[in-house]
Amino acid sequence: MSGGLVGECTQEPAGRREVERVSPPARLPDPALALRSGPALCTWSLSLAPPPRLPWAACRGGANAGRRRADDWGRGQGTCAPAGVHVGPRPVPLRRVRLCPVRYGPARSRFAMGSGAAAGSVRTRYLVYFQYLGTDFNGVAAVRGAQRAIGVQNYLEEAAERLNSVVPVKLTISSRTDAGVHALSNAAHLDVQRRSGQPPFSPEVLAKALNTHLRHPAIRVLQAFRVPSDFHARYSATSRTYLYRLATGCPQPDQLSVFEQNRCWALRADSLDVAAMEEAAQHLLGTHDFSAFQSAGSPTTSSVRTLRRASVSPDLPSPFVLPQESRRLRFWSLEFESQSFLYRQVRRMTAVLVAVGLGALTPAQVKMILESRDPLGRHQTRVAPAHGLFLKSVLYGGHGDLATGNPAWAQWDRQPDDFSPETRGPKAGGLE
């Protein structure tokens, strides 16, 4: 009777066969006590949860030998069998779980980067030339954390994500331009790492793929070249040329053709004293401290730059201006060439030269402004509008230059081991 009472009150529901962690077994109720206590104890025993089960290995001899097996609880199987003898059903084996490589590290997951598809992949560096109309962008530099892409670099990197590179593609821009500034030809380098066994993209395929995935019509990739791994789009540049367009004979900005708006600085004056402007530009040529022509608070440590060329010349008539309008409108071009420029240096020099052309300053005063090294002076605080400025070209000493046919990069692409990195120019930065 006692055996039936204990077996009935402690019967385990069928189907429970999980393997749990090792824990000390609970003390079993005494059958004799159950007989003395009557039905009340039986009711209490029915509500008693079964003690924690022991895994199969823990019941085979040792300190747990002689204790009731967890799988045999309530079945009258007696104590655990001696070591090496199987009695009753075996526990369900534990399943192997694939661990997350991000949470648990690559050593505990076979899906970790470097042990799978990334092993043996080759990283290739490309030099990419691109152009854009800067009216719709907040400059060329990427704006991180923005909900929508508002920098030219944002759109280029979004297009580069479609290349399925093993590592994220990040662009290094050669020359950073402000909001509203355009570029006929800017440059950047990027690294693309394809999966193991896949050859690098050809430059032609890369340029075509980027143009295909670009989501803004005001950006276009011009050309791409394979370059050495130590090439740097910003520091390897040996020359940068900026173009500023002026339009005279425009009393009101809204009278300018819609195709020329945001493409030039419209001036009310009918003409400019070009000879005086050219004389003033001669004072700017050479190596000088251009502190007077940089914006206050510029992060540049040195304001010494070498201006190689500063020219003022009449521009061709605009094909977007009607004949009746072109009689009074005239276009002018100012070009500045240097290895690098200070922040807003070109726009400040343009404003001073325009003041000379309008008769507000003399060429001698331009020299005094340069020698003052004061960026907060009366005349040099004015900055020309951004929408008239174009980055015309970025050169790399004949190697990778868009205008020279790029013979050096083409030869390096065929024979990468013969390329001499000493052809790189001195380090410089381009800001405007």
From TrEMBL:
It catalyses: a uridine in tRNA = a pseudouridine in tRNA; uridine(38/39/40) in tRNA = pseudouridine(38/39/40) in tRNA. CDD domains: PseudoU_synth_EcTruA. Residues 1-26, 407-432 are annotated as: Disordered. Signal peptide: none annotated. Transmembrane segments: none annotated. One of its GO terms (molecular function) is RNA binding. GO terms for biological process: pseudouridine synthesis; tRNA processing. Residues 131-236, 280-396 form the Pseudouridine synthase I TruA alpha/beta domain. Keywords: Isomerase, tRNA processing. Its EC number is 5.4.99.12. Pfam families: PseudoU_synth_1. InterPro entries: PsdUridine_synth_cat_dom_sf (IPR020103), PsdUridine_synth_TruA (IPR001406), PsdUridine_synth_TruA_a/b_dom (IPR020097), PsdUridine_synth_TruA_C (IPR020095), TruA/RsuA/RluB/E/F_N (IPR020094). Belongs to the tRNA pseudouridine synthase TruA family. HAMAP family: TruA. PANTHER family: PSEUDOURIDYLATE SYNTHASE, TRNA PSEUDOURIDINE SYNTHASE-LIKE 1. This is tRNA pseudouridine synthase. The lineage of its organism: Eukaryota, Metazoa, Chordata, Craniata, Vertebrata.
